[in-house]
Structures are given as structure tokens and as C-alpha cells.
Design brief:
single chain, 144 residues
Amino acid sequence: MAIHRLKPPADLDIEAAFYFHEIVQSLPPGHFIPGDIRTLCAHCHALVALDRANAGIALDGEVQSDRYGILKATPWVAIRAQALGSIASLAVKLRLTPSSRQRMQEIKEQLRTQKGRRQAEVTEHEEQSGGSGLAGLTFQQPKH
């Protein structure tokens, strides 16, 4: 069965869709499931917000003086901080960070090891029972 890559929703704006494609293509097929689409879209919107905040800061600076001459952070600084927080949080949920990808690899290895042990147990049971993996097993009808 072929594993398909997620496609962005039709209503995703072009800037976020660029990030969507970039992220999906950078990871192996099957990394994301359809249930990840909303989270991935939110992550892409946060990346766009970060781009806009950085552009605003480049244009306006991080601080401006108010009408009394007091220096205050421009609104872009708060927008950037919020976008960075969202990006960090969503990256973990989407398994985009090195540590979360490493953890997924460890889990896959554990599952492969467990599967290998179970297969060895079935083979051993078959050898002991004369070839039928079902020999000696009892089945019970569900109680109603």
C-alpha cells in the first residue's frame, strides 16, 4: 500500500501553503497522518506570522519612542514572541524537533524488538506443539 503525503487544504493561504509543502516534503512519507492537518496548518500560520513580525521589526525596529519620548517595544516584538512560542509548541506536537524524532525512532525500535520476541515465542510454541501455532490454545465465547 502506497503511503501518500498530506496535501494542504484548498483554503490555506499561499504563504502558509508554501511552508506546508516544504515541511511535508522534508520528512518521510507517512510522518504525518490526516489528523495532523489542522496542527500543521496552525504551525504554518505561525511561521508566516514570524516572517511578518521579522519584516515589521526590520522596517520599524524593535523599539520606538512614544509621544513622550519613552522607548517602548513595537507591537511586532510581541507578535514575534507569540509566533515563536506557537512554533516551538507545535513543532513538538508534529514531531519536527530532533528530540521528538529521536524519541519516535526509539519507540519504533522497541516495537520491532517486541514484535521479534513475539514471533520467536510463536515459532517456539509451534515447534513444541508439532507445527500448529494454534495447538493448545483455547478459545472462549464472549459472555453476554
